[in-house]
């Protein structure tokens, strides 16, 4: 057993880091739910983008379960999201942490399953981080559940099978996204150039950096190498805490840089919160040496959970889940469906453990542009329903600023990338319901959806002229 203990070094997590992970991930979760709450009527009610009947008949994966489908009224969606937000706040504060983590996970799975057209990698990572941390003691420090101080001699290192699985999930994300990126666009160095020219995402800083093509080449290749090598530093058997700190700090900086250059919603912040869990305890001791020591102890009523046979049974179950997750990722990567039978894949879908890590892979999209929603109202007024300004086909200064949230940005990108009658029709009907004239008294009469397609040329070449593509024309009173 000694060799097993020695091998378990890479599963070690510091209890203080886990507590800060809980708080940071909880903050991301609350921010995400507040945004969804603000647009609950548009995203989830029968009045909004995807009425339940239309969603179930045309888009819903029947392996998924969503409690939000129980009622299509707006009040129900607001109530549902409010309950989820309260649960997330209590989890973040560390009050009955495990119970509210489970409640939050169930509610979050229902929210995400209700309308996957709004989802991004941030949603997957947020949900999966909550699942794989279920068996970890997230509330031994900085939590309302642990109100009693303990001595400085209490050990803060925690090694477990659950910790190893928690680490493996993040490693899987980076390794698989790196493998998906093994493509000339990435290996030859043009991927960052293309990514920074996706106006749906690019920030002012990203737009400025896009002009430095040589710098983009270096950054592309460094990104690919880092996504391959960085996660493996967690498994270095000597000076592991030094390598782990280097990996965590490196990825935290990497994602902060992404957030500055691209509007990727909560993804950079969720990833940063995940990496915080891997920081060694010595870092906190150095950082907070001059501050009061905020330590908490476990009440005797819960000490039986940690290191118990009951925990071991749960961990074995989670090992089985991780095996299926690995098979699913390999199956999707190799396009070998025999690795994971449909029935087993359905189990993963129902448990909300399904995942695909092909961000900006095998290469960033090259057909970018912006939408013009040309609306005519019953009172004769004409305006762009997206901007609520006069219709113009000129390129906006920053296209990413047109969208009020990351969910809207993702939806519009989906509308162009995969949009057909199946999705354009309910969207046009939604616009007929929601868009009003400038004085708020006249309904929308007709809608013309045009995508101003701008193709990013190879590095060094001039941008071609923008090509308008008419996606849909709709009469609100006859369709």
Number of strands: 6
β-strand percent reads 5-15%
Mean pLDDT: 90
Which consecutive residue ranges, at least 5 long each, have pLDDT under 50?
Answer: 149-153, 294-306
Distance from N terminus to C terminus (CA atoms, Å) equals 70 Å
Succession of helices and strands = HEHHHHHHEHHHHHHHHHHEEHHEE
Q: Write down the overall geometry.
A: globular
Largest sheet: 4 strands, antiparallel
Helix content estimate: 40-55%
DSSP helical segment count: 19
Radius of gyration (CA) equals 24 Å
Care to describe what's here?
This protein is an alpha+beta fold. The protein has 19 helices and six strands. It has helices at 2-7, 15-38, 40-44, 52-58, 74-93, 97-114, 121-132, 161-180, 184-187, 191-195, 204-209, 213-229, 240-261, 267-276, 281-287, 309-334, 342-350, 406-417, 421-434, and strands at residues 13-14, 157-158, 367-377, 382-384, 444-455, 467-475. Strand 3 (367-377) and strand 4 (382-384) form a beta hairpin. The chain is globular and about 75 Å long.
């Amino acid at each position: 057993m000694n060799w097993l203990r020695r091998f378990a070094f890479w599963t070690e997590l510091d209890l203080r880091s886990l507590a800060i992970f809980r708080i940071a991930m909880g903050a991301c979760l609350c921010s995400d739910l507040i945004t969804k709450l603000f647009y609950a009527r548009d995203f989830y009610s029968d009045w909004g983008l995807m009425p339940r009947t239309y969603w179930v008949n045309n888009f819903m994966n029947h392996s998924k379960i969503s409690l939000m489908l129980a009622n299509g009224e707006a009040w129900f969606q607001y109530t549902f999201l409010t309950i989820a937000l309260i649960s997330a706040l209590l989890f973040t504060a560390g009050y009955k942490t495990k119970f509210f983590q489970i409640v939050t996970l169930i509610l979050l799975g229902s929210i995400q399953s209700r309308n996957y057209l709004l989802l991004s990698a941030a949603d997957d990572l947020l949900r999966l981080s909550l699942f794989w941390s279920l068996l970890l003691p997230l509330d031994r420090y900085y939590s309302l559940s642990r109100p009693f101080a303990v001595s400085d001699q209490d050990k803060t290192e925690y090694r477990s099978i659950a910790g190893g699985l928690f680490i493996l999930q993040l490693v899987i994300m980076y390794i698989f996204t790196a493998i998906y990126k093994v493509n000339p666009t990435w290996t030859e160095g043009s991927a960052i150039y293309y990514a920074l020219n996706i106006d749906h995402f690019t920030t002012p800083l990203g737009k400025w950096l896009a002009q430095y093509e040589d710098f983009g080449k270096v950054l592309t290749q460094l990104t690919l190498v880092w996504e391959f090598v960085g996660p493996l530093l967690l498994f270095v058997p000597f000076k592991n805490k030094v390598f782990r700190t280097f990996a965590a700090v490196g990825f935290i900086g990497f994602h902060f840089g992404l957030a500055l250059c691209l509007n990727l919603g909560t993804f950079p912040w969720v990833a940063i919160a995940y990496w915080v869990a891997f920081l060694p305890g010595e870092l906190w001791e150095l950082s907070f040496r001059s501050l009061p020591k905020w330590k908490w102890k476990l009440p005797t009523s819960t000490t039986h959970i940690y290191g118990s046979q009951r925990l071991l049974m749960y961990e074995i179950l989670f090992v089985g889940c991780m095996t299926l997750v690995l098979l699913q990722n390999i199956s999707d990567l190799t396009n070998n469906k025999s690795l994971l039978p449909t029935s087993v894949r359905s189990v993963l879908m129902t448990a909300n453990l399904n995942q695909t890590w092909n961000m900006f892979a095998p290469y960033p999209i090259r057909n970018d542009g912006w939408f013009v929603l040309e609306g005519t109202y019953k009172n004769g007024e004409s305006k762009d329903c997206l901007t609520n300004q006069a219709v113009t086909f000129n390129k906006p200064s920053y296209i990413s600023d047109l969208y009020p949230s990351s969910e809207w940005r993702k939806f519009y990108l989906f509308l162009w990338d995969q949009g057909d009658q199946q999705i354009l029709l309910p969207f046009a009907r939604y616009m007929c319901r929601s868009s009003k004239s400038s004085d708020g008294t006249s309904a929308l009469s007709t809608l013309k959806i045009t995508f101003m397609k701008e193709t990013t040329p190879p590095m060094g070449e001039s941008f071609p002229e923008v090509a308008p593509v008419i996606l849909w024309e709709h009469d609100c009173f006859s369709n």
